[in-house]
Design goal:
heterodimer; A: mainly alpha; two-stranded antiparallel sheet; 4 helices; disordered C terminus; B: mainly alpha; Cytochrome Bc1 Complex, Chain D, domain 2; flat
Chain lengths: ~150, ~190
Amino acid sequence: MNDPHIDPTHAHAHEGGHGHGVRSEEDRISSGKVVAVGVGALVVFFFASLAAVSYLRLRQSEQPPPTIPAELGQSKIGMVEQQIFDVAVRGTRDRARRLEKLGSYGWVDRDGGVVHIPIDRAMDLVAKGVRPAQAPKGEAPPPGGQP
Amino acid sequence: MKTARLAAPLLLLLAACPRLDPMWDQPKVKAYKASKYYPDGLAMRTPPPGTVPHRAPIEPAVATGRGPDGRPLAVSPVAATAEQLARGRARFDVICATCHGVLGDGESQVALNMSLRKPPSLHQFRDLADGYIYQVISEGFGLMPSYAAELSVQDRWAVVAYVRALQLSQHAAMEQVPPEARERLEKEGR
């Protein structure tokens, strides 16, 4: 009775010994070939990318320049609020507006007679001992009082 | 040859080990730590008798912003000269205006992104003592941290003087406006 754990064809092959001349290929990987395939792929992708970029630029140059949408600059386009996308511009604009206020005369409260004056003039006044309204008064600092 | 190839990356890995860094362990003492080199076992030493500071000592009122009674000084102990104000303006624009705004009104790009608690306008604190403003800069208040590391004692008093100038510039009386500008203001509307 044949042993069920032995493959009959395999067993037959062994019966003949190694004289049949068929040998399995040696299980070795050529590192050099693997690296060569990788480098080759990189080179192919590099030139393919260059070709794709050149092609896209060529197509873009054939197209007319994009027109600016008429809705641009509006605070609301359709149902989308645009103010939230305007943060960078708003920061610069607000700072310029505040600097302009910091260097000019103007009314703060006309009924109360309160105005804003340029900071340079305010610094001159403070250097002469003037203090803002409601600021606590006290003895003048000792001359030459330096930390 | 194979051993040499393996050794190179292993050597590189060894170089990444911090414990092999000779600077890791240094024979030094740290503050408030024990030391076996002194009989009392303390690392921190008392200065020898007769030791004097190498810089002029800062008066307590100037250093703390508080008077002898412990209350904030009403007026800065440092004279608000033109140089002091110019220094305060430069420091304010770099350190303080980031949150409080160049006008000191609490409107800035950073303040827009502060959802928990926005920096207040400095113009509502005109009645505060100079020493109190100095203390807030030195010790912090609320969400504002201490700026003692960024601003020296002299810089802090300079900023206090500039904050007073800012408050005056945005809350001035008509008498403080020159005649030529006063005429123009009278003509224009609100």
